[in-house]
Amino acid sequence: MTDVGKVFPNGNVAVNNINIDISAGEFISFVGPSGCGKSTIFKMISGLIDNTKGNIEILGSDMNDTGQKRTDVGFVFQDATLLPWRSVLDNVMLPLEFQKMSKQEKKQEALRALELVGLEDYTKSLPRQLSGGMRMRVSIARALVAKPKLLLMDEPFGALDEITRQSLQTELLRIWEKQKMTVLFITHNVFEAVYLSTRIAVMTPSPGKIASTVDVPLAFPRNDEIRTTHQFSDIVAQVSHDLKF
Ligand SMILES: Nc1ncnc2c1ncn2[C@@H]1O[C@H](COP(=O)(O)OP(=O)(O)OP(=O)(O)O)[C@@H](O)[C@H]1O
Ligand SMILES: [Mg+2]
């Protein structure tokens, strides 16, 4: 993103000058105060809304040139946003609806995505028959089914209890390592950001800018023991410090 800005039609300046270069395969988290423009940045990257200033280049092509590569981008929202009348399998097949594939192939792909999140035994369930954590896993499977090269996750685990949140974090890292995709992740939780990321972008209050980026040189695969190490808490302290200037 080069000098990217967004002014909404009502005059709200959501973000002003976003400059960041993210490499393929990174897992980068965005942290920053409420209203600083994190969700707006993700919506611009996914093409849900347009930027009003600057340039966004994704996967080697300029967003302003073509809309093609947007199919390579998966989005996981804070709420699971599943269709309540569709089964788990049918929800996960949704992004494949308009792809040239046989029904059988679509089913196969959806099953594969559900296996990744450990829900292969719940294909026939309806969303309301699942727990919040399971619904979120369905939503992650739905984002993964089209094999995105870039996965955007906007506070996906915000509504979950700590135990579920931590196990989903570990599951997500396992999927990320396996699929070798790039993940952009929004969270308010600095511990979560450090546990997951290779790098953290710390944002200023509205209109947001990127105040600093902090590298997280902790080795992968990461396990729960890492959360209590000195190195871990040092990085948490650094990010927390950068958040309050
Ligand atoms: N559709 C819109 N029209 C006008 N202003 C908007 C719109 N969407 C967001 N904004 C404004 O843009 C700014 C950034 O909003 P955004 O949702 O990106 O923040 P955020 O960092 O994701 O916050 P949170 O952490 O609370 O989710 C806010 O000041 C908000 O009021
Ligand atoms: Mg937001």
UniProtKB/TrEMBL annotation:
Q: Which domain of life is it from?
A: Bacteria
**Where is each ABC transporter domain found?**
2-230
Molecular function, one GO term: ATP hydrolysis activity
Q: Where is the signal peptide?
A: none
The record's annotation in Pfam families points to: ABC_tran (PF00005)
Q: What keywords is this UniProt entry annotated with?
A: ATP-binding, Nucleotide-binding, Translocase, Transport
What name does the UniProt record give this protein?
ABC transporter ATP-binding protein
